Amino acid sequence: MAGWLSRTDMSHERTCDLTLAVGEMLGNAIEHGGGSGTVRLSLVGRSVTCLISDEGPGLPDRVDRHHAPRPDAAAVDGRGLWLAFSVCTAVRLISSMHGTRVELMMEIPLTENGHSPTA
């Protein structure tokens, strides 16, 4: 994934953030979504979208699909959604008893002169 992102204008820092967020979501798919998951990347204009999906039983009702609170510092897990909401431009969760789909979107910002930070 990092190799694919390196062909875009995304900065190294944002590439690391998105790679970490996708890794967390894929880890959730594996752990809670039936043991496997898929990742699909796309670049449209200045937006990178990563779709992570699984065929598990869906998210529990207690999971807020629009916000994730910061986990307690002593918690040993539960940081994935919070991290995704923190570093991504947008996060969309679609879940049913047939699986979950997480869409992470990250904009590639322009500098004041209209060029990307890495150009």
Explain this structure.
It is a single chain. The chain is built from three helices and four strands, in the order ααββαββ. A four-stranded antiparallel β-sheet has the order 1-2-4-3, with helices on one face. The longest helix has 21 residues, at 12-32. The chain has a single domain (2-107), classed as Heat Shock Protein 90, CATH 3.30.565.10. The protein is of the alpha+beta class and 119 residues long. It has helices spanning 2-5, 12-32, 80-87, and strands spanning 38-44, 47-53, 90-96, 99-107.
Write the layout of secondary structure elements.
Blueprint: H1 2-5, H2 12-32, E1 38-44, E2 47-53, H3 80-87, E3 90-96, E4 99-107
Antiparallel strand pairs: 1-2, 2-4, 3-4
Helix pairs in contact: 2-3
**CATH homology superfamily name:** Histidine kinase-like ATPase, C-terminal domain
- Which shape, going by the Cα principal axes? globular
Cross-sheet strand order for the largest sheet: 1-2-4-3
The CATH C-level name is Alpha Beta
- Per DSSP, what share of the residues sits in E-state strands of 2 or more residues? 25-35%
Q: Could you list the spans in which at least 5 consecutive residues all have pLDDT below 50?
A: none
